[in-house]
Design brief:
Elements: H1 2-11, E1 19-21, E2 24-28, H2 29-36, H3 42-51, H4 61-69, E3 82-84, H5 88-116
Antiparallel strand pairs: 1-2, 2-3
Helix pairs in contact: 3-5
Length: 117
């Protein structure tokens, strides 16, 4: 996945709903939270973004309309805030690690989780 992200950046191609701004590609935070890592609590994703000092940019009205036309009709404006695609490789490994931990917790079940702490 990491190499695919680098290819997307190199060729300015993005498989997700996105907008272009000043030559850069931006994806809505909805893609990260609901499509790439749907099993992670939103708070955990927000924490990773804060740790990496990632700033989400607000969408303009025209960008919001364009994103809503791309199957994101039900998203709140907050979930349409934009993440620069070039920042995704920086946070991806931390999100993947969190995803792995969540999967392990689910497999072990609630009684096993208590023993891990």
């Amino acid at each position: 996945m990491q190499s695919q992200l680098e290819i997307f950046l190199l060729y300015n191609k993005c498989p997700f709903p996105h907008v272009m701004r000043a030559g850069a590609t931006f994806i809505p935070i909805h893609v990260l939270k609901e499509e790439l890592f749907p099993n992670l609590p939103g708070v955990s994703v927000d924490h990773v973004l804060q740790d990496h000092k990632v700033e989400l940019r607000p969408t303009t009205l025209s960008e919001e309309k364009a994103l809503r036309d791309l199957d994101l009709k039900s998203c709140t404006s907050r979930m349409l805030k934009l993440l620069a695609l070039k920042q995704l490789p920086d946070i991806y490994l931390d999100l993947l690690t969190l995803h792995w931990h969540e999967c392990v917790k689910q497999q072990l079940g609630p009684s096993s989780q208590a023993r891990l702490h």
